[in-house]
Amino acid sequence: MREKPLVLIADDSRSIVNIVSVVLKARNIDTLEAYDGRQAWNLFEEHEPDLAVLDIVMPGRTGLELCSDIRSHPRLSHIPVLIMTSITKDSDLADGFWKLGTSANDFVTKPFDPFDIADRIERLLRKAQQISDRKSSDSEAPKG
Q: How many helices (H) and strands (E) does the chain have?
């Protein structure tokens, strides 16, 4: 078990990764940084972070592809995912995307308030911890 939560931040914009990382580290959350989809997946599989923050449009693999892979992976599917994008409801690219939705736990459009995204991440981490605690207590309960 980790001493502090670990969050993977994946975006091809180094400035966005740095801003989110600084705000999370100030809240005692460790971070892994990735700048393309392949690097993000490699870090995700190697470290199994407690949460992933994924940009949709990245070189290598998109955030949507990564989210889908996380959800279909038996060992990783429980890990919360927050999607970030500059695609808005008014953009041409978004039309089908908004109708289909994602399997992400939360969604943020750019530009965003770094403190808002940190609040969202903390909420998702708390919720994931509560679910994990319930599963642990259920498995320890006597069966009758």
A: 5, 5
Q: Please, are residues 79 and 49 in contact by the beta-carbon 8 Å criterion?
A: yes
Q: Which pLDDT belongs to residue 17?
A: 97
- Asked whether residue 125 is assigned to any structural domain, the reply reads yes
CATH number where 133 lies: 3.40.50.2300
Q: What is the DSSP string of 50-114?
A: SEEEEESS-SSS-HHHHHHHHHH-TTTTTS-EEEEES--TTSTTHHHHHHH--S-SEEEESS--H
Tell me if 1 is assigned to some domain: no
Instruction: Tell me the torsion sign for CA atoms 78, 84, 90, 92.
Output: negative
- The answer to whether residue 113 sits within a structural domain is yes
Q: What is the pLDDT of residue 23?
A: 97
Q: What is the percent of the chain where pLDDT is above 70? A: 83
Number of domains in the chain: 1
pLDDT digits (tens, 9 = 90+) for 59-98: 999 888 999 899 999 988 999 999 988 866 555 455 445 4
